From TrEMBL:
Originating species: Arabidopsis suecica
Domain F-box, residue spans: 208-244
UniProt lineage: Eukaryota, Viridiplantae, Streptophyta, Embryophyta, Tracheophyta
Protein name listed in UniProt: FBD domain
Annotated PROSITE patterns: FBOX (PS50181)
Length: 645
């Protein structure tokens, strides 16, 4: 369809007030251009993609800036409502929408509804980030206007005044001098300095005025998508925005990319403004100060800011303090805060000293990474865990000096929390302890990373476990396995201090709920453990052998031959296993035989993925030979796809 397909020039729609177009045709935007030019009284414009044409949306083939010699009269004087339904967000589409927003002077409402395809979580996050980038660009432009353009205008005014005083005859104005005393023909009104700024910024001030007409609640939601530092900078926009940021319920401050002088200003800013913050309740308060030069932030500063946040009924408190040279003791009011739901403490500069009166009735999430526990009040960690009656999520990472050298106080880590549902423990090698006790009857997720095997484990009531991720050395794997028989997903990277059958768990244990099993082949007994799990997991659907990145040099060939070890084909291979994956395989003959056994006996297998370790040119021929051997091996499942990398 070419230009002749549009209607003739000279046709005017004087009575047209409402226009709705479907963007399913390649010439729809050309038609829209003509209708805008020929509809001087248009009040409502809607671009709506019909349900039947979801797959027919076409990008505008015209560039509006080039197509229109002048802004249509309806945009200048009448258009009050603009709506686009089913927008897919391409650059050309966004340029069209921006053109209308930039030129529609009487616009009251602009509604943009994206296609459902953009409603995924990832794309929604991308849209939010894009909005943040646009705001950042706007604020940078405003800062440049404030720091460069306005001083030039003021300086020019002063020069003009001085010249007028010296020159008695009529003074001839240059063009630049008219910017501050401009008269637009269509409005016939003299612009003040604020209007002058808008003219110098390509009419951006009227757009800002329209945004400012939104209610505070909506503007605050917009500001919450921005970093706090950027949200604060909106105070320079106008008096309408000057103190709006002080109602923000989310405050985040960090020292990323800041010099010492900027950190000094940040400290002064917090001391001045945080006590005056107007939000009745602070939803989130985060401080991240890492590698701070000595003397800038003092422990009493952090303590004061935390006290202020607590006084505003804070719901989430997140402190990340590392390498600040001095430990920060948290206020005692923290441990009796009724509103606190999430508490995250990170860094060896945080001292946890829990009083006897501690009680956190609302706390559901607790994260403690490498913090220091005071030894004055006996076991502060145990006391902290005991004062959280509704705790659901606990992350605990210890460090060698977390009890200031008083290791006798912390010989036993006891996690006894009836309400706990998620537990993640990380215990490095240099931590001195005797026993780990876990008694959590409501636990659904359990992760343990422990490098030391000198202490014992006591896993008691964990009957509701669904997901377990373990990387450690077990002196008694039988006790552990007995407590996790209800698990649905199991990831194991274990080293067992025993030989032969003693390295395995007792006979008779069955994992009726286990559907996903992941094993790391870094221990000499891993293949024996695999045999036992195959025998005792009748409903296993996914099996993965994955060599952890930290154990690249520890891969061990299977000690057993599945053909000889198993008297019969396990039930899971005959009836349920659908996915098999081996990551980091070396390609030894024993490994190949194990893969061939599974391919030969897994009747329901749909996908088998073999990912080799990185090879050298010298081993490439060997790798190709292994590919060929597996491709020619027999498969019980006729629908199985074999994938190599």
């Amino acid at each position: 369809m070419v230009e002749e397909a549009l209607y003739h020039e000279g046709i005017v729609f004087n009575q047209l007030e409402n226009l709705k177009l479907c963007p399913c045709d390649s010439n729809w935007s050309k038609l829209l251009v003509r209708l805008l030019k020929d509809s001087p009284n248009l009040r409502e414009l809607e671009v709506s993609l019909n349900d039947d044409h979801k797959n027919s949306c076409v990008d505008p083939p015209v560039c509006w800036e080039n197509q229109l010699n002048c802004v249509p009269e309806c945009l200048l004087s009448t258009l009050g409502t603009f709506k686009w339904t089913g927008i897919h967000g391409s650059p050309k589409v966004m340029d069209l929408a921006k053109y209308i927003l930039r030129n529609a002077r009487c616009l009251k409402t602009a509604t943009i509804l994206f296609q459902s395809a953009l409603e995924t979580e990832d794309e929604r996050e991308i849209m939010i980030q894009e909005v943040g980038k646009r705001w950042e660009e706007l604020f940078q432009m405003l800062r440049e206007r404030r720091d460069v353009l306005l001083p030039l205008i003021h300086a020019r005014r002063d020069i003009v005044k001085e010249r007028k005083k010296k020159i008695k005859k009529e003074y001839v104005h240059s063009y630049v001098d008219t910017l501050s005393d401009l008269e637009l023909p269509d409005e016939k009104m003299k612009l003040n300095e604020l209007r002058s700024r808008g003219v110098a910024m390509d009419h951006s001030e009227p757009e800002m005025d329209r945004i400012s007409q939104f209610p505070d609640e909506l503007l605050l939601k917009v500001l919450q998508f921005l970093p706090t530092r950027t949200a604060v900078s909106t105070s320079v926009l106008s008096k309408r925005w000057e103190f709006l940021w002080m109602w923000l319920p989310k405050l985040e401050y960090d020292n990323t990319d800041q010099s010492s002088s900027e950190l000094q200003r940040l400290r002064a800013f917090l001391h001045l403004n945080l006590p005056l913050h107007r939000a009745p309740a602070i939803e989130i308060f985060r401080l991240k100060f890492v590698n701070i030069p000595t003397g800038i932030f003092k422990p009493k500063d952090i303590k004061l800011w935390v006290v202020i946040a607590l006084s505003r009924c804070v719901r989430e408190l997140n402190l990340n303090l590392r390498c600040m040279c001095r430990a920060t003791s948290l206020p005692s009011s923290l441990y009796i805060c009724k509103s606190l739901v999430v508490l995250k403490l990170i860094g060896d500069e945080i001292s946890v000293d829990v009083p006897r009166t501690a009680y956190l009735p609302s706390l559901k999430t607790l994260l403690l990474r490498r913090v220091i526990y005071s030894h004055v009040n006996e076991n502060s960690l145990h006391r902290l865990l005991s004062c959280c009656p509704v705790l659901e999520d606990l992350v605990l990472e210890r460090c060698s000096m977390d009890y200031m050298g008083e290791s006798e106080i912390f010989r036993t880590v006891n996690v006894t929390i009836p309400s706990l549902q998620r537990l993640a423990l990380e215990i490095p090698r240099d931590v001195d302890m005797d026993e780990l006790v876990v008694n959590t009857p409501s636990l659904k997720y359990f992760k343990l990373v422990a490098e030391e095997d000198s202490y014992s484990y006591d896993f008691q009531d964990m009957s509701k476990l669904e997901v377990v991720d373990i990387e450690t050395t077990f002196p008694d794997i039988n006790k552990f396995v007995t407590s996790i028989t209800s698990v649905k997903r199991l990831s194991l990277c274990v080293r067992v201090n025993a030989e032969e059958e003693e390295a395995l768990y007792s006979e008779g244990i069955v994992f009726n709920q286990l559907e996903n099993l992941k094993l790391c082949p870094c221990d000499a007994n891993w293949s024996k453990l695999l045999v036992r799990f195959l025998e005792n997991s009748p409903h296993l659907r996914e099996l993965e052998i994955d060599l952890n990145d930290d154990h690249k040099d520890s891969c061990v060939d299977p000690l057993v031959c599945l053909e000889n070890q198993l008297n019969y084909v396990p039930e899971c291979l005959r009836s349920s296993l659908e996915t098999f994956k081996w990551t980091g395989i070396h390609g030894s003959q024993k490994e190949i035989e194990l893969v061939k056994y599974i391919l030969r006996n897994a009747c329901c297998l749909k996908t088998a993925t073999i990912l080799f370790q990185s090879t050298t040119p010298e081993t490439e021929d060997k790798r190709k030979t292994m590919f060929q051997e597996l491709l020619l091996s027999s498969r019980s499942s006729t629908t199985c796809q074999l994938v190599f990398d």
